[in-house]
Amino acid sequence: MWRGRVGALLRVWGFWPTGVPRRRLLSCDAASQAESNSPHCWNCGGPWGPGREDRFFCPRCRALQAPDPTRDYFSLMDCNRSFRVDTAKLQHRYQQLQRLVHPDFFSQRSQTEKDFSEKHSTLVNDAYKTLLAPLSRGLYLLKLHGIEIPERTDYEMDRQFLMEIMEINEKLAEAESEAAMKEIESIVKAKQKEFTDNVSSAFEQDDFEEAKEILTKMRYFSNIEEKIKLKKIPL
After folding, report:
1. 130-148 as b/e: b if 16+ CB within 10 A
2. Do the domain assignments include residue 67?
């Protein structure tokens, strides 16, 4: 009864509009509880977390924090989660982050920050290398969608494609002249360009099965590229 009278008075005084459901204000205890659930700086105890703008340093004491485990490579390198990546922007971001977290800049800091800088630097290197190359970028993007390609996938490939791979490998094994090597390189480069364009279209259409098949073929040709590099090394 008393609550009803109070509500009526509040409406009359204009503090409680008619038709608006009453909500309890967040108490100081509830606010403190929400704050306590967020990550805190290892050095000063101040609140810090993935939701904050600066994900590397504590906003209060500027101590370097541990890498954010919830952050993927695309977010870390400030790229859209897409197969199409601006490689110039990617390189700029890589250089920016290394100037920020490279171990050389933490030689006079605490051991904790030295350890964190090593982890950050390794993570940045891995992210850069992964997103720079079309094959590793595509495989990583598939992984983010819960799809991984086993190492041995011969049984899933069509016979015609496997025969093509065998023929190129045979030509590479028999190649003795620089002209023969260049011819094989040209063939492989053209195929990889074709695959890269096709897998980009597949990702844009969210056709992950098609992307998986194309990336598997790209991996075969990537192996041939490695063989070409090894053959070029003088014994």
Report:
1. bbeebbbbbbbbbeeeeee
2. no
**Residues 1-34 as b or e (16 or more Cβ within 10 Å = b):** eeeeeeeeeeeeeeeeeeeeeeeeeeeeeeeeee
Contact residues for 43 (Cβ-Cβ < 8 A; gap 6+)? 58, 61, 63, 110, 112
Place of tokens 């606010």: 31
CATH at residue 208: 1.20.1280.20
User: Do residues 38 and 31 lie in contact, with contact meaning Cβ atoms separated by under 8 Å?
Assistant: no
| Whole-structure pTM value | 0.80
- Token readout for 175 is 């190649």
Residue 67, both tokens: 């890498």
The verdict on residue 171 lying in a domain is yes
Domain count for the chain: 2
Selection from 128, 119, 123 nearest residue 94 by Cα: 128
What is the Cα–Cα distance from 124 to 99, expressed in whole angstroms?
A: 11
Out of 53-67, 68-82, 130-144, least confident range = 53-67
CA terminus-to-terminus distance, the chain: 96
Helix axes 208-232, 134-144, angle to 10 degrees: 150
